[in-house]
Amino acid sequence: MKVPTFKPNTKYSYDDYLKWNDDQRWELISGIPYNMAPAPSSRHQEILGNIFGLFFNYLKGKTCKAYLAPFEVRLSENDSDRETFNVVQPDLSIICDRKKIDERGCKGPPDLIVEVLSPGLSAKRDKIYKYDLYENYKVKEYWIVDPYNENIEVYILGVDQFDERQVYARGDQFKVSIFKDLEVNLDDVFGDEPFDLI
User: Fold this and answer.
1) Domain-by-domain residue ranges, the chain?
2) What is the pLDDT of residues 94-112, one digit of tens each?
3) Dist CA 62 CA 134 (whole Å)
4) Which of 26, 119, 169, 192 is packed most tightly, with the most Cβ within 10 A?
């Protein structure tokens, strides 16, 4: 299928996004289109699967639900598709307000978002652009998972912005701020044996 052609200095909306019927996945941040990374690595998927399994088991019988990418999260002050300029596909979204869910995904901020880093530009996008976006739209908790250095950066929303960054590495445990009785063991997230990059 035809890949959309983007004009410089043009702000695109969710209405435009819906017309891009190519085989690629896109995100919009402040109206700027970003092509999603190629198929994630096996390591990425293994770690994401471990995190999803943790939440899936914990959330059984509870109101909150876990959603894996591809899953569109639309962030806007306006209900109009033409006035929505932020559409992201987090690796994992935890959503407790079921009214935010529709057939397209989620309209409004998830309670918790997990992004697992991939090499290249997606790391910059997750650490800068999406960080700012999630903070601005009041995501309560944001994790940036680094599969190569085996750590998780956790940001918890304060009054108007994310509080100081907490970094957890293999061997650490921490409590999920939105679920006080859920504890994460990093050895469970990254697997039984340290990952060898060679």
Assistant:
1) 41-79+87-190
2) 999 999 999 999 999 999 9
3) 24
4) 26
Q: Round to whole Å and give the CA distance between 43 and 64.
A: 27
Strands 141-146 and 112-116: parallel
Q: Which two tokens stand for residue 82?
A: 């033409």
Q: Which residues pair with 179 in a beta bridge?
A: 176
Among 149, 180, 154, smallest CA distance to 167 is for: 154
The pairing of strands 151-156 and 141-146 is: antiparallel
Query: Residues 53-71: pLDDT tens digits?
Result: 999 999 999 999 999 999 9
Query: One-letter amino acid identity for 82?
Result: R
Contact 50, 180 (CB under 8 A): no
Q: What pTM value is reported for the model? A: 0.92
